[in-house]
Structure formats: C-alpha cells, structure tokens
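tool_call predict_complex ligand=NDP
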Amino acid sequence: MNVRTHIEAVYEEVRRRNPGEAEFHQAAAEVLDSLAPALDRHPDYAENGILDRLCEPERQLIFRVPWVDDQGAVRVNRGFRVEFSSALGPYKGGLRFHPSVNLGIVKFLGFEQIFKNALTGMAIGGGKGGADFDPKGRSDGEIMRFCQSFMTELYRHLGEHTDVPAGDIGVGGREIGYLFGQYKRITNRYESGVLTGKPVAWGGSHARTEATGYGAVYFAQEMLATRGDGFDSRRVVVSGSGNVAVYAVEKVHALGGRVVACSDSSGYLVDQDGIDLELLKDVKEVRRARISAYAEAKPTARFTARGTVYDVPCDIALPCATQNELGREDAVALVKNGVRAVAEGANMPCTPEAVAVFREAGVLFGPGKAANAGGVATSALEMQQNAARDTWSFEQTESRLATVMRDVHTQCRATAEAYGDNPDDYVLGANVAGFLRVAEAMTAQGVI
Ligand code: NDP
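tool_result ok
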C-alpha cells in the first residue's frame, strides 16, 4: 500500500472507531498529515502497524466520581484517564478539571502528549486525564472531597513507574496536594514520584509552576532569533490568565517585552502600560477572581466582555488558554496587525485554518507539542529529583528547562529540514521528530 493511502486508512479508522470525538480527530489528522516523509523512509513502520497502534490508546478508564457538596447534596461527575503510550516510559500527562471534559478531549490531549514527551528526550510515555467537574466557585472543602473521591478510584492505576499525572486546566498545586494525600493514605506509601506539580515544600520541583509559560517564551525567543529578532521592546498578547499565561507574562517582561493584553473565559483585558504582574497574580492566584477585577483596580486598564484578545495589535501572540480558541478570523486580524511569531502555550489553541493563515503569511508558528513542552519536561525533572531524594535549586532547574527548550527547537528545525524543504516548518519538524523516537521504541519492543 502506498504511504498516503496507508495514512488515510489509519485516519478513517480513527474516525470510525471514535465517533463524535472531534478534537481527537483533529489532533490525529494534524499529526498524520506530517508523517508521509517519515513513513516513506521507514517502510517497516507501516509493516509493524506503528500508526495503527499509536492511534489506539493502550488503556482507557472511565469512572464515577461521587462527592458531597457543602449543602450536603450528593453530586456525581465522570472521571477519565487515557493511558495512551508507554513506549518511552510511564504514562505521563496532566489532569484537567473543567465542565467541557469528555473522552474525546482527553484523547486529543493524550495523543498530543505522546509526541510532546518524546520531543523532550526524556523517558516519559503519554497519557492524560480529568473530569467534567467545574471547580469555579467551589470551596476548598468541596475541592478536597472531589479530589479524594477521584483518587479513590484512580489510585489503582497509578505508580511512579506506571502512570504519573500532573496538573492542567483547573488542577494546580492545591488539587495536586489533595490528590497526593489521598493516594498516600490509601496505599500507605510516600511515593513522591507518583504525581508531579507538587508544592516545593514537600517533593515538588523548583520552576515547575513557571515551566510551561517560561518554556513557551524560550521557544518563541529561539524562533525569533532565527530572524535576528527577539522580545526586547515588542508588544505581546497572551490569552488566558491561568498557570501557563501568568508565567509567560513574567518571562516576556524579564526579556524586555511588554504584554499589553490577556484574558479569561469572561473577556479580555488591555493595559497599554504593560500587564502589572503582581496585580494579575493577586487577582488570579490569590483571590481566584475574574480578570475584570484587574481593571477595577487599575485605571489604565480596560476590560472588554465581548470580542477577542487577538483584536489587540501585537508583534508576538502567545495563546495560553484552551483548544481552538484562535480561529481563522483571529489569525487574519493578527497578520493584518503585523504579528511576527505565534507560540502555543496551550494545547492546540489554533485551529487548522488559523495555522494555514500563519503559514501563508510566513509568520513563525510554534505548535504546542514543541512550544509548551517545558511543563512536562520539568515534571520529568521533578521525577528525577524524587527518585534521587534530592532537591535542585531554582537556577539549576530553570537552566535545565532552558536547555531542553533550546534542544526541542533545534530538533524541530533540523527534522523539518531533513524531512521537508523548510526549516521554519515547526509543525512538520515537531510531529516527525516526536514520531520517530516513539516509532523506534515501539519497533524494538515488538507488537504489544
Ligand atoms: P489554568 O486552569 O491555570 O488556566 C486556564 C486559563 O484559560 C484561565 O484563565 C481560563 O479562564 C482560560 N480559559 C479557559 N477556557 C477559555 C476560553 N474558552 N476562552 C478564554 N479563556 C479560557 O490552566 P493552565 O494554564 O494550566 O492551562 C492552559 C493551557 O495550557 C491548556 O491548554 C493546557 O492543556 C495547556 N498546558 C498546560 C500545562 C501546565 O503545565 N499547566 C502544560 C502544557 C500545556 P477561566 O478561569 O475563565 O476559565
């Protein structure tokens, strides 16, 4: 069978076997579209059914999560863990708590995670999980009871050598703490390496909280440097105002850029003076308030409930909120306003149509599986510290993160050049480089 026919057949099977899972179809198509040159050079991959096996998770768990709210009412949510690939190491990927979570979203995230984790060069497989639980407006007690119930089912599938979750949307240090406490209680083991994203005081890694946002900025910096450009004096727009967004803002400012806008799901905020990071952290991390509270506290800022953050003119855009948040029209607006580079801090925030607009306009585009790999890479560093019962300094850990991001960038460009004709094609580079590492391991480990 010719390579393109084989790829199309695999994609058709993904659609047939996973009906209604639009985000998973999208993520699979995005990777499969890049792989023809790799399969051309490695005919044994098709013979070994590498793609067919990669597109089917090794294990998918769906479970009931019952809990009691502050009024004493019983609530029921649905929990998920998709253990996608253990070719390179224990399943590794975050947990997302958001009302939109369903099996298709968890699968898209788990599939992306396989290639992202491979790109880091570390010994981590791919997985993802979460629940359709909405943490917004819930008390600490409710969050704790939910996390305890979630872990009471999930613990049996986890282990430092088996499956190691971390945070994602709606899951930060507080939730990881409750999840870890319940795992420890049930198993009677202080197994630090079973979860990453722990607070530094009891087994977490310095720089893990900052890693995804910092890493995305490092990646953008590397892309810009190929054109003799950088962040200095550049106007930057960041979407979202959660974990990834806040630390992207912090690093942009450290590099001399000015973030003039950010957002949350209620609207967006423009502050032409540059986002005041301390105020943003106070609003989002301490008060857990809506972003409009920033504008209420700062007269130079303007909050808009309608429209999109991408209407704000900028040189560099960092989408750090959620999947498919940046569509074709947003991309056209960004290009019209002169954007030079877009790096995805979030997973799959740009639609395929938006990516096509950037490509057509020659805008540097860093796909999430490369640009946001710093988070999981630092999680792997946390696992290393836990295994050695060691703690590295912030500087040491951040320097390892910076090296990983530089290596991911170099790998993407080199692979794009070797398997295509344009080193700026980071999509091709990231997909093929990640795929080759996984395919090699799968071939060596036999048909399993
Ligand atoms: P958080 O929950 O900390 O923050 C998410 C942010 O995105 C919030 O500001 C949220 O606003 C906003 N948001 C969510 N949905 C929308 C929407 N539809 N429109 C506008 N804003 C929205 O999550 P993270 O920062 O951890 O994750 C953000 C992205 O980065 C996700 O795609 C995640 O998968 C990805 N990622 C995260 C990593 C990590 O280490 N945390 C690692 C790699 C990728 P609101 O509060 O109103 O909901």
